[in-house]
Amino acid sequence: MTNYWWSEKIAPGYLHSYEVTPLYEERTPHQHLLILKNRFWGRFLVLDGVVQLTEGDEFIYHEMLVHVPLTVVSKEPQSVLIIGGGDGGSLREILRYPSIERVVQIEVDEAVFRACQKYLREISGDFDDPRVQLIFGDGASYVASEEVKSHPFDVVLVDCTDPVGPAKILFEEDFYRHVREALTPWGVMVQQASLPRTIPHVMPMAYRRTRRVFPQVGIYRAPVPTYGDEIAFVLASKLEVDLRRPQRQVSGRYYNPEVHQASFALPTWWQDLLKTPEQEAA
Ligand code: SAM
């Protein structure tokens, strides 16, 4: 196949350009899906023009998304709900915990799952593991269902796209309320909260809304080079625990207990952004 230069618009006047070999393209009922290959970053997934993960740096995002919440939950984590995450990278990291007995994953777009299983299989956890149940549907409706409330989760991990299209509802206050009800009394929720540099309204919006619902909320960050800047995560707990302090020792390629603690140190401009009044930031 012919190589060409493909660019992601990170911000007005700022592109990330990759020399790519196209591997797959589909207009799914939910989004435009591309799988490309670049000789530096490897294979990568693009949804609606936005890079979701590359083989070269996905470990930073997935380890930080999974190990921060799974190490702060005060009981050994046994059950996890993943919303989104159709590439399977979060599942891979969750299955590293021997205490895990049940993982339910709900992904709205079956095409993402199919394409990633074919072209990005190496990064995925094992969906054939008997502890794992994969459902295709909207995470917000699922989390509001009676079925979930009668079988709550220790961790809800919102591994979603930014709040446009199908993921918009995953940043609503009602969604966070349903997540709280879907958690065990010691449960925690984590969500990627976008890039404060280029999409500055998402982190303060997610922070404010989760703070209205959970007694304890923290923001932490990770540098994922192909996203263009540091990404924010919002971590919300039903118990007032010290979110900076891991309760169990886990070490990955990026994550370790020191990185965990340090990732909660926020630059002054992030702290200022979190104080932005609602009407300005929304
Ligand atoms: N690493 C990524 C990032 O932050 O850029 C997230 C990757 S993962 C592929 C995001 C997934 O969330 C997509 O596959 C998308 O289909 C899924 N998603 C978006 N809205 C959803 C919803 N309401 N319910 C379930 N899954 C959803």
TrEMBL record:
Q: Which InterPro entries match?
A: PABS, PABS_CS, SAM-dependent_MTases_sf, Spermi_synthase, Spermidine_synt_N, Spermidine_synt_N_sf
Pfam families in the record:
Spermine_synt_N, Spermine_synth
Indicate yes or no for the key word Transferase.
yes
The record's annotation in NCBIfam families points to: PRK00811.1, speE
Q: What are the positions of the active site? A: 159 (proton acceptor)
Q: Name one GO cellular component term.
A: cytosol
Listed under GO biological process in this entry are: spermidine biosynthetic process
Query: Where does the chain bind S-methyl-5'-thioadenosine?
Result: 31, 107, 138-139, 166
Has keyword Transferase? yes
* Alphabetic keyword roster: Polyamine biosynthesis, Spermidine biosynthesis, Transferase
Q: Which gene is the coding source of this polypeptide chain?
A: speE
Q: What is this protein called?
A: Polyamine aminopropyltransferase
Q: Can you state the subunit structure given in the record?
A: Homodimer or homotetramer.
Per the UniProt record, the lineage of the source organism begins with: Bacteria, Pseudomonadati, Thermodesulfobacteriota, Thermodesulfobacteria, Thermodesulfobacteriales
Q: Record's family?
A: Belongs to the spermidine/spermine synthase family.
Catalysed reactions, semicolon-separated: S-adenosyl 3-(methylsulfanyl)propylamine + putrescine = S-methyl-5'-thioadenosine + spermidine + H(+)
Q: In which pathway does it act?
A: Amine and polyamine biosynthesis; spermidine biosynthesis; spermidine from putrescine: step 1/1
EC number in record: 2.5.1.16
User: Mind telling me which Gene3D superfamilies this protein's record contains?
Assistant: Spermidine synthase, tetramerisation domain, Vaccinia Virus protein VP39
Listed binding positions for spermidine are 62, 87, 159-162
Please give the function described in this protein's UniProt entry. Answer: Catalyzes the irreversible transfer of a propylamine group from the amino donor S-adenosylmethioninamine (decarboxy-AdoMet) to putrescine (1,4-diaminobutane) to yield spermidine.
Kindly list the residue ranges recorded as spanning the membrane: none
The organism named in the record is: Thermosulfuriphilus ammonigenes
Named from the GO MF annotations, one term is: spermidine synthase activity
